Amino acid sequence: MLGSMTSNVPLNELGEFLKKRRSELSPRTVGLPETGGPRRVAGLRREEVAQLASISTDYYTRLEQGRMQASAPVLDTLARVLHLDDDERGYLFQLAGKTTTRTRRHGRQKVQPQLQRVLDDLTATPAIVQGRRGDILAWNALAAALVTDFSRIPEKHRNYPRLIFTDPAMRSLYADWKASAQIAVAQLRMEAAKYPQEPRLIELVGELSTRDQQFAQWWGDHKVAARTVGTKTLNHPVVGELVLDWDTLTANTDPDQHLTVWTAAPDSPTHERLRILASWAADQNMAASSAPR
């Protein structure tokens, strides 16, 4: 699993992605007749994908084996044949468009000043800023009350995917922990296409693959997702059930920094519970600041 990130990147990664996607399709799904006989491989055969894409089996085989680069028209056809969604299609093109791997080391990120000002002004809305790999760069008081006190986590471990898989409290907080964890893995997999040899990303994937069998399985599934919008239900220990819409905004000055905000419909039970949580958090902070040292 981790090896696909460290050798012959990104062509091997592209080949693994193609193999995984074709293994999930049946002949009936793509309009091919069912033969009724046993199949040696799950999903479509290489020759079936090649037939549907109007390319030779040898050409497609070389793509899966990471031995050649694909043209944009062929990639477009394969995306259609393999029923890729927009995120998966973008991931496919991102992998195939690289002729050399990125080996540049990235310095430690710091939150953009304008994003920090937005966080400081959001007193009734939980919000965090994430960087590369899902590193948590900044947060406001309500986000800490909603998820966890990020300040108590060592900076090198302050990472959202790592938190979801290593903090037992996250499994209680998320009503559908599995779906949230799978999205986190898919977003991390998308990031790996941009920075396939980034040392800290490789280290993170290796650690989580070793510590959690589900992470290893889902990483191997090659599912991808961009940071966009969605809805999550949380079971908060203080205010109970919260149904929150989340949205992600990207900083123009650093496309690797994303502001995620959680909101609730006005006058909804969740909206009222967020107000209660904000008041509770303010009381906690006041008590902590006035405690003798």
Automatic annotation (TrEMBL):
Protein's UniProt name: Helix-turn-helix domain-containing protein
Domain of life from the UniProt record: Bacteria
Record-linked InterPro entries: Cro/C1-type_HTH (IPR001387), Lambda_DNA-bd_dom_sf (IPR010982), MLTR_LBD (IPR041413)
PANTHER family (UniProt xref): BLL4672 PROTEIN, BLL4672 PROTEIN-RELATED
Entries under Gene3D superfamilies matching the protein: 3.30.450.180, lambda repressor-like DNA-binding domains (1.10.260.40)
Span of domain HTH cro/C1-type: 39-89
Organism: Streptomyces ureilyticus
Pfam families linked: HTH_31, MLTR_LBD
